[in-house]
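User: Round two. Same drill as before: sequence, then structure, for each protein.

Assistant: Same drill it is. First protein:
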Amino acid sequence: MTFTRRLLAALSLSAFVLAAHAHSFKLGELTIGHPYARATVPGQPAGGAYLSVSNAGTTGDKLVSASADVSKSVELHEMKMDGDVMRMREVTAVEVPAGKAVELKPGGLHIMLMGLKAPLKQGDKFPLKLKFEKAGEVTVTVNVEGPGASHDMKH
């Protein structure tokens, strides 16, 4: 097999693996990309959920709330540097500007699962309902990945 054929075979396999791993959901002009959470350990009171939201429309929208049965409550949070200290705080909404994408990721904007009812185990999935100010509600499937999971969701 020539180098070119081996390279094409490897790239085809990589694309297949990525396509099988990635998942997205549509709600009007919004696309919610690859919702995932990191696995937690027994006794850990909270977990995080992460995803991207792309807005193909001409009007901005806002993620105003989220809910899931895996925890007692769900909050929208952001992490920001305050001087030399990283601080996390709840936010009332996440702006999704027209024609742009917003990434909810570790160390930035994210969804907090407060009061976990059981540990999030790698390989599990759970439903997460997202409510947008204009587009309405959509339920997405969150894949639980390894404790250090991170994704670059840039398009």
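Second protein:
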Amino acid sequence: MTLRDFRRQADAVRSIPLETVLTHWGAQRDRRDRHQWRTERGPLSVTGAKFFNWHGNEGGGGAIDLVMHLSGCDVHAAVGWLEQQLGSAPAATSSTSAYSRPSSPRLGAHTKPCPHLPVANLAHLERVRHYLTKQRRLAAGVLEPLIEAGKVYADRRANAVFLMVAGKANRPIGAELRGTGQRIWRGLAPGTCKDAGYFWIGLPGSDEIVLCESAIDAISCFQLRPASICISTAGVRPNPAWLHPLMARGYDIYCGFDDDQPGNAASRQMIRQHPTIKRLRPPAHDWNDALKASL
């Protein structure tokens, strides 16, 4: 690549809104001050195209500077990541893009590894939205905030992608996939480790958690039980590694696996290992069936 080519590439991504970069990176906006963001490098203040890290007493301007600050990478790696993950500035302004932490070694040794998440494809978003609202009967009022937050999106094959995260920072670690064509199938994004995190929906202040077998079931369960935090175990799993930290926080946890032989067997196994967990059978075979029956 010539210097002129690189400058052209940098000019195309430099003006990507900082809020878009931070959202894709997995940073959390302060609810009381929308100019403040919580990142692994410390709190950032964002004003227009400028940012400042109060803990590090350093700042900068533009999307390229921000990625360099967050990752510790050089300018070439920052430009490459922005182009790969977000494209040019006009395309990146959409709130429906999925966010993904960088996984390439070119971003330097200070960044945490992450599976390669499916790239968002806005051309297929309407098909995914139609599948989830018309066939699965998920309420638009529940689904749209997930799409806007990048927790649900469409990939290039028109699969519905449900982002799996870990920790208080909601760091992306993988994704559940659900086909939306005539052949319905489910799977995981390449490199996803189910023990590292999960898809979830709910109010952070809730003291009740319902464990479901899939992201669609978790959203359906939340629609039926809006006071709960609903988590997908991405399959029938009686003892996921992330369950223990949740139990230690004092949540009332319910096993909401499907009301069938695998779901009931896994529920019994989970409760034998963790007697404080209670069984909560969906009113139908699964939570999505229960949701559709209730409408």
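Residues 33 and 128 are 33 Å apart (CA to CA).

User: Perfect.
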